[in-house]
Please model this.
Amino acid sequence: MNERFNVTSYFLDRNLDEGRGGRTALCCGDLRYSFADLARLSNRVGHVLTGLGVRPEERVLLALSDGPEFVATWYAVLKVGAVAAEVYTFLPPEDYAYYLNYSRARVVVADGTTLTKIRAVAGECPHLRHILAVGAGAVGAGPAPGPTEHDFAALTAQAPDHLDPADTTRDHPALWKFTTGSTGAPKAAVHCHGDPLISFEGYARGVLGLTASDVVLPVPKLFFGYARDLAALFNFGVGAAGVVFPERATPERLFGLIKRHRPTILVQVPTMMAAMLSHPTAQEQDLSSIRLCTSAGEALPKEIYRRWLARFGGEVLDGIGSSEVYHIYISNRPGQARAGSVGQLVPGYDARVAGPEGTPTPDGEPGELWVRGESSALLYWNARAKSRRTFAGEWVRTGDIFTRDAEGFFYYQGRTNDLLKVGGIWVAPLEIENCLRQHAQVADCAVVGHEAETGLIVPRAFVVPTPDTAPTDDLAAQLQAFVKANLSPHKRPRLVTFLPDLPRTASGKVDRKALSGGGLI
Model:
């Protein structure tokens, strides 16, 4: 595993070497970037980064909206042997200070969505030396004293087109994938150059069957590795194109992009699937170009899965992955998908459903999912205790509760820290949520534990009613009765709180910390 290998050389530059330089790599608005265009820009960015003093294995923070600059910069960081770390572009200033100090990045690449916020906290980030600003007129004086700001377009225009890759191997650190859970400060899972290749071969080729004729449209933004890998990495590995856009994803925007670009693969999350199904124009939309719709990030409810197939057709492949194991390691397969299941093992990975001591549980019994594969991260950066709890030798303890059936299909039951003990019996909030979603007047919901006046923990449901439904006490009572009638009586939510929308993390997961904290009530 010590042969020379560089992610950028394999996934981007190889397209030029194999005669695909003129093929479209990225579509963004009215612009189309060929693989040659993207490689040229990436090489120029690489020269700019090394000119700013970026050293091998040093982190470079990307705080950029989706677009060719994001993709080219990400590849440039890896090509020069540095480590790429990406963050969401709609965070408060204090979050950027956290990421800058945690990564100790000396260079951050920012744009109009993040630059003002980064300037505001630059004085709190002693390691930060340079801000590379994307966008016309973005560069300003900045705080004094503070990092030097540079114009991305001006510097890249002056840089050479050719750049030799750094002398990296599959075992050299290449990128950070931040945990995207709903509790605690994010930590970085450190991955090496060889990890994307493992996932590409097992999932992108082995499960999705990506080909050069595919066009991939992601719903999540590129800072989320699930989206970036499918829309600007794995697809490049077979010479396929991706569609990127800087704006927030909305049903209207996605329907417009599908009509314009006719993608063959839609990278989805359940929340947006539900929103697109509920859109007033859903019945008019033509999604016939989409051969596969992937789903990840959170559990895909059976009802959304069935409604999507009934309305839009195609295939929906739910799966589960994590920052710790790089990408998706269990997935449904074309022609074999099962509603409610995340599928079977991706080639190259192994998993077991285990009890507290790591002993496998019998089929059908719940337990924590342990996973192993060659794409697993080295560790969590600067978090030894957390690393030792999660990375148990060759196994990764996911913290997810699953069951597995005799045919090897896995069924998600929730997170270990989500389980509620009600009346001495463990209850999975997801089971209650799936029940509530079957009610005709429920658009979305989440269930968390609530400490009652007795000091006992009881289920509490936060419900988003359908647009034509009034959130009344009578409806709350109906929902409680509905759960009681369809599940064991002790699983009935003792409290029902109505919200216009559920709070979500940057990666689209329900923010259970916000719900449990009670700040929304």
The chain is about 30% helix and 25% strand. The domain at 192-415 is CATH 3.40.50.12780 (Rossmann fold). The CA atoms of residues 245 and 455 lie 48 Å apart.
